[in-house]
Amino acid sequence: MDQGKAINITDTDFDSQVLESDVPVLVDFWAEWCGPCRMAGPVLEKIAEQYDGRLKVCKLNVDEGRETAIKYGIMSIPTLHIFKDGRVVDQIIGVTPNYESDLKKKITPHLQ
Predict the structure, then answer these.
(1) Which of 65, 68, 72, 82 is deepest in the core (most CB within 10 A)?
(2) Catalytic residues
(3) Strand, helix or coil at 95?
């Protein structure tokens, strides 16, 4: 696993990477063809680096991970879910003008 980098996950490793994680996990439900998703990418990489060891950042391509996207009711992308102890504790839908600071505000209360 790359330290301080977002991890690409699939339906197959979702449970082990997200639900069984010892630290909170930010999951980005995205797609290659989604413009706002591509805009969010560099911010998520920065978050992964800044919160290394305290937060895991995972990216699930909804075109390749349909089963998981359906399970979590993903209707629009980008959608980010924050998981802690195997359950969703918060979500962020879309990209805001102050995306990085808005993400940090959502993430901070869930850090250990």
Answers:
(1) 65
(2) 34, 37
(3) coil
State pLDDT tens for residues 5-19: 999 999 999 999 999
SS3 label, residue 63 = coil
Q: Tokens in use for 88? A: 């969703």
Query: Is the pTM above the cut of 0.85?
Result: yes
The CA distance from 80 to 71, in Å, is 14
Domain at 7-107, CATH from 3.40.50.10810, 3.40.30.10, 3.40.50.150, 3.40.50.10490: 3.40.30.10
Token pair 């699930």 in the structure block, residue: 60
What type of residue is 101?
S
Residues near 50 by beta carbon (within 8 Å), at least 6 away in sequence:
none
